[in-house]
Amino acid sequence: MSLRKPEPETTGSPSTERAETSAEDAAWWPIAVDREVVRSTIIEMNRAGVFVCDRNYRIWDVDGAFLDMEGMSRADVIGRTVEEILGSKVFSLRRKNLDEAFAGKALRIRVPGVRDKTLGKFLEVFFQPVFDRGEEVVCVICAVRDVTQFQHLNERLSMHEEILRQTTDRISVIGTDFRYKMTNAANAAFSGKTPDDFVGLHVRDHIGAERFDKRAKAHFERCFAGQSVEYEHELPVAGQEPRHIRVRMDPYRDDEGSVTGALIVLRDITEAARLAKKLRRQAREDALTGLANRHALREELERVLDDMQSCGKTAALLTIDLDGFKVVNDIAGHSGGDALLQQIAGLLRSFASQDMLCARLGGDEFAVLAPGVDAAAARDLGHRITSGLASMRFVWQDVPHAITASVGIALIEPAFGAAPEKSAFQVLNEADQACLHAKSIGGARPVVYRPDAEEMVAHRLDIGNLQIVRNALESDRLELYTMPILPIDGASAPHMEVLLRIVDDHGRVLAPAALITSAERHGLMPRIDRWVVATALENLHTVDPRTCLTINLSGLSIGDPEFTAFLLETLDTRPDAAGRLAFEITETAAVRSMVTAQALIAALRTRNCRIILDDFGSGLSSFAYLRQFCLDSLKVDGAIIGEVAHDEVQRTIVAGIVAVARKLGIGVIAEYVEDAETLAILRDLGVTMAQGYYIGRPAPWVGARPMPSQLAR
After folding, report:
1. pLDDT recorded at residue 1
2. Res 712 pLDDT > 50
3. pLDDT tens-digit series, residues 64-106
4. Assign residue 442 a region: left if phi > 0, alpha if psi is -120 to 50, beta otherwise?
5. How deeply is 463 buried, as exposed, middle or buried, from its count of CB atoms within 10 A (0-12, 13-18, 19+)?
6. Pairing mode, if any, of strands 315-323 and 404-412?
7. Strand 667-670 to 633-636 pairing
8. What is the pTM for the complete model shown?
9. What is the DSSP string of 575-639?
10. Which of 45, 52, 293, 365 is most solvent-facing, going by the fewest CB within 10 Å?
């Protein structure tokens, strides 16, 4: 069966024509097998599914591949229609193609399979018309091939080509002869060339002999040896900032696995490098002043400490704390304060040598780390800083401001003998302690840290006490004790004062005075007073209903609006308890925050709470103040009560206090009553109630009842 158009039809019978054709074929067919056998073999080897159909779409011939594809025998197919064999869906889709072939048009199409057995596959279908000698199409040969793998390969190739075209990465393949095999458009455009310009170009000719010989060649040779190579470098660009390039080289292998080149990917990371540099700078730099920040100072200080231990070099850390910066901030505002801090940063830079590090620790605190200086040089630098700040002129909105600073100096010297090495934290702490001491003695001066200085020892104790209190708060190691206050006038109701105790890590109950002083100094008392009030109310049911419970309030709590709101809201939720409570407010705190104290006292009294003015006589002791507060009692300080049995003047003072209090309708409580003689004198002087070791010692809260009958007449 010939696919070509036959020669014009000749006269003669069919048998004669066949004989002539056979004779003609034999003349140019030298192989000793019939040509039709060879043709059939070619068709079978092609392994395309082939069938032949007439104009009625009946199949009259097929190859083995088609029968294999359909799972049918030749007898099942011959004489049946395409629709019967391939189904109505395929026939309706391909009938138009068959008709075009019967009209004389050869077609080739690639379509997805639609039958169950071909779903997920791609098929390439050929429609080839077969002409007779009259140039009429007598049949159509259809050939079907499974080209799924080729389709997927083409899709992947197209995708890869599109990626290469779209990516901004510069991609090339360079052979082991250092010549370009290919490059993508991005790389070509970077150099103002086309991809074809690169093919065959030697890398040396492209990047220059110096860069190739000194750097690139070694990387290529490692890659050609089978290693993946990655590195970054700066690429100079004429008239512009250098570009930061990340280079990735991977071995390029042939089908047998041999390295035939290198796949090079160049990525421009300039913006990322700039951002990383900016973030590194921000992580180590103070945003306002441009000085190093605390983190950077800490790192550099640790490096200096390491150098000192290995090389024996000395150094010094100076911390600078402005005196009265809050005043400047209040007058000039935050903008003015920021401008001042920036001006001070410039001054510190002018004093610091090249190897010194200037830092802002936060707020109005600065530091200078000076490697290689001894004690004398460090002290001299401190004096130059304080005198420079004192003489610095700062004017904001036409208002001049005087600037001074306290400077603490910690010397960094090699440890001798068994002395432990200092840590960065210890050095910073020493400089801070020296700075605080400088501020406490008037400021505007440098002070060198001395571990044996009495004031600095006291500061260390204060910081230690503060840490104990903080740990106790965090670990719930606070306890309440009680101490009786008993009536000695035969009329007053017994009281019981609530006392705070702090337990250390070893379970020991610590003396409270120094700890509470540190807590007050560092602003922790409102938090502690919250705990005391809440715990006392929670345990109030264990106290005899006839006993009034007294709770001390610190001066900080009295002036804290948040604590005041907490206290009043808590009392409002326990109106039954409020009438059983008295609050002790120190004379000093009441006078210092008179308006605030008056408002709080008024609010507490409206809730039926009693008010006791504590430590009367320890402060200003002006009787005029008593008229400013609505009090139930005042508690005379132990410094007055202590010698009352042996000091006539003290007795006179107590008598005067009692007389004024009685006139105002206020009870008088005497504390520090240590013996029967003192108690008897106080009773004779008209004191209302007594408290002290003779009356009863502090004890853990167990709800013990005081016994007034033992003391009252």
Report:
1. 40
2. no
3. 888 888 889 999 999 999 999 999 999 999 999 999 999 999 9
4. left
5. middle
6. antiparallel
7. parallel
8. 0.49
9. HHHHTTEEEEEEHHHHHHTHHHHHHHHHHHHTTT-EEEEEEETSS---HHHHTTS--SEEEE-HH
10. 45
